[in-house]
Amino acid sequence: MPDPTPTSILSPPPRQTCLSAIYPPILTSATPWATTQDELLRLYTSPYTGAITTRTTTLNGFPDDPAIHKVAFFNPISSANSPYAAFDLAPDSADPGTTCSVNTYGYSPHALPYYLTAVRGLAAATESTQPPLLTPGGTPRTQPKPIIISITGTPEEVSLLLTSIGDTMSRALPTPPLLPVWAEINLSCPNIRDKPPPAYSPNELSTYFDAVRSARASCAWWSSSAGKIGIKIPPYTYDLQVRSLVDVLSKYSRGDGQAVVPVLDFVTATNTLGNNLVFTDTNMLGALSGPALHTLSLGTVHLLRKGLDEAGLRSVGIIGVGGVSDGDGWTRMKRAGADVVGVGVAIGVGIGRWGVEEGVEKVLGEVWMGVEKWGSTGK
Fold it and tell me: Residue 48 pLDDT > 50, yes or no?
């Protein structure tokens, strides 16, 4: 019987995108464990990250309420919740099957200026680092890692956020900045009451692409080759959702001689999936992340890569996120079509089980094993 697996999944063709410069091809996604400058510094200085993403920020900061905005880790096989809370340390004997989470989080309590200040702090800290930042092989890095600031809001607010980031970075031109800053527009959080993820609506996507196009036209940073803008999408459960996104993106792309210049540089796929229930002391209904989401994220990445390529948008990169916690998960994301792979809730699980220092390195080191294997075998 012939193998029904599409050839494109088995051996995705090579391509060059803005994400090709990220090495290692691993980054951390927008999570609660990337909220403070200290947390960002810990992730940035890991030899296993090629870039990092901040927690999603807004113009004025999100009204975070610990009584409402929580996370519950659980075992996806038994659906039993973990005995430890989000930021409590647990013994190493904690259930190794506790790999998923359901959360009711919104966005970062810190407004954008906090993260612009954090970028300057990271630049100062890493510039004075002795020894310098290292690669997984132990050699000093020769290129800075991008910092992706995750932002969200109405289209008008996103326009202001992009302008603020762009103006801050434009002041560094024409001198290349020590830390390149990109923007990821989060259009996919399922936890905001009465505000469904805009990425499910082609009409709403258009309003955000208008904001991006305006930022590129008016700001030196976003019109330069250094300023990269992407969006983060939710898991898509059927192919028309992917095709609708690609259709809108195609309409907002322009021809530049023989090449098509997309309005976006990258798409992050995927965010969490809403409306999941875990029975805890208070019963948690919220957004799912972790290995239980992995196959749906893989499917979204695969259909998105296929759709972008068919639309002539091969230069749009894909950050594959969703349930990756080890080298095998990284490899599956690459096979599905991701250019680089993001790690999210696995960081929280690792910190919960082993503490910050050991947890971060254990998890990212496991993911790095997939990169090593891919490099030696090509698949």
Answer: yes
